[in-house]
Amino acid sequence: MQRFFVIVSLLFAAVCAEAQELKIVTEDFSPYNYEEKGEITGLSTKVIRAVLKELGTDCKINLYPWAKAYNMALEQENVLIYSILRISEREKLFKWVGEIAVSEMYFFKLKQRADIKIASLDDAKKYSIGVTRETAPHQYLSGKGFELKEIDSRDELSIRKLVNGRIDLMPYYNIPFLYKVKGLGYAPEQFEKVFFLKDASEKLYMAFGAKTADSTVEKFAKALEKIKADGTYEKIIKEYQ
Question: What is the pLDDT of residues 29-85, one digit of tens each?
Fold first, then answer.
């Protein structure tokens, strides 16, 4: 019996050691990942936890400003980041585990701003635009030749600037934008989608930086495939539809 407990203890220690080596990082991006009553939750977070459960392990999820989370995953080994868009600028920088959700990006304006009219992406270049540093909207628009001067550390700052008239437009994702404006005490009816950024609307992924071993990435990919095959993933998605 004593030998049995020793073996179990060693196995438990091994699992804990693996969990300690792994870091999981994300940002405040409702309803995909956000903090509620001291716990990180949301659609994407529930998918991540389901994958960890399938692997038989657990790990603390850390909520950071996007730039910090992004750079940690980029520069360190064994850092899992989510929900991250798989845009061309990032393709070779990360090892992609798999899709965990979808997201549509739009330019938003104040509904009262009837003077703002956009029929093409180039039309938006004549307006002041607010973005959050190192997010997909920031990288996407920079890659399209936009000269972005209003760059903030958090999405909430850009939303407040939009309300106060300090910027004209904010590129963001439809469902998360509504969550964030409500959280700041604004009515969703104050805002309007003015242009659909189709080629920036992508699936959301979980990924590791390029320094992480392929074996680790493959292990997580197989666990993600398993929860999709057994219906766990679909059940989570339906909670948010």
Answer: 888 999 999 999 999 999 999 999 999 999 999 999 999 999 999 999 999 999 998
Domain 2-101+203-238 falls under CATH 3.30.160.270: no
Give the start-to-end residue ranges of the domains of the chain: 2-101+203-238, 105-200
> Tokens 């309007």 map to which residue?
192
> What is d(CA 225, CA 99) in angstroms, rounded to the nearest whole number?
10
CB contact at 8 A, 109 and 116: yes
- pLDDT tens by residue, 103-124: 889 999 999 999 999 999 999 9
Answer yes or no: same fold for 2-101+203-238 and 105-200.
Answer: yes
Strands, E assignment, the chain? 23-26, 34-36, 39-41, 61-63, 79-85, 94-102, 105-110, 130-132, 150-152, 170-173, 191-196, 203-209
- Domain 105-200: give its CATH code: 3.40.190.10
